Amino acid sequence: MENNKKTIVEKTKKLLDSDFYTKGGVYETPMLYSPVLSNICSGNVYLKCENLQTTGSFKIRGASSALMNLPQELKSTGVLTASSGNHGAGTAAAAKALGIPVTIYVPAKISNKKEKKISQLGATLIKVDGSADYAETVALADAKETGATYISPYNHQDIIAGQGTIGLEILTQTPNVDAVIASVGGGGLISGIGSNIKAHKPDTQIVGAFPENAPVMKACMEAKEIIEVVEFDTLSDGTAGGIEAGSITLALCMAVIDNTETVTEYEIAEAMKLIKENHAMIIEGAAGVAVATLIKNKQAYINKNVCIVLCGSNVSDETFNSAMTMVK
């Protein structure tokens, strides 16, 4: 595990010395001070706005990292991946920027907004009946059968290293940060951020935020192994789904996450509403999970400098309106 952390930190550093921010379609996102959240917790709260990233999600960072690090012969034959939407859009955008053919496997129930975004970026889209987990299973099987390169949404050192660039940006933009809160699905985002921040500022608290209806990685961390976890529908669809067998993110999450919290669907919806009303931004449920975690534990952040990662903005109008109805 320590070797994985060290390798990821080294890979993230190399990205800064490459064309990551030019050829791959990634840019450094802004860090916004939040007066309302700062007032709520009597501290200083900053929003790392990955919702403003290319494709509206942090996922393009990992995708660009993975595709840029492919051997040339594999770039020409193309890659495939599975995604509930954001990783698919990020991979499609990165592949288009780098001239690499890509096929994206998605669950048939993918939102229209996410499907349209992926298709417009030129990827071949394959819909699979069933869950996001099953789409991933089909993609893995097809990759094995055809010999194509499969790019995991999270279980890949280059993916995690790409997400780690967020951690380095956080340290540059808020060098006195005391805590970073990020939502957790497969664990690639928080593994990359946590590995890099801990390498430079080890006392920084890394907080994993989970929807109460689908705290899969949290349950796996508690069991110290990847297990099947019963899930229920959640506004945080971007973090939903099981963990790939043998995923390196489990050990990384156990190593870098200092505290965890779960939040209810109502708390997620309230957080989404707060960001809309006070920052004029639409965020997806997974980002709402991180905001709700700060609010739920506000006393823990008195006089602290806290960064919340707003991981994305890709939410359908129907889902967002449903969330707003919940908290009227």
From TrEMBL:
Give UniProt keywords alphabetically.
Answer: Lyase, Pyridoxal phosphate
Single biological process term from Gene Ontology: isoleucine biosynthetic process
Tell me yes or no: is Lyase among this UniProt entry's keywords. Answer: yes
Ranges for domain Tryptophan synthase beta chain-like PALP: 25-312
A GO molecular function term, named singly, is: pyridoxal phosphate binding
Q: Does the keyword Lyase apply?
A: yes
Cofactor(s) the record lists: pyridoxal 5'-phosphate
InterPro entries noted in UniProt: Ser/Thr_Dehydratase, Ser/Thr_deHydtase_PyrdxlP-BS, TrpB-like_PALP, TrpB-like_PALP_sf
Q: Which family does it belong to?
A: Belongs to the serine/threonine dehydratase family.
Q: What's the protein here called?
A: Serine/threonine dehydratase
This chain's source organism reads Photobacterium swingsii
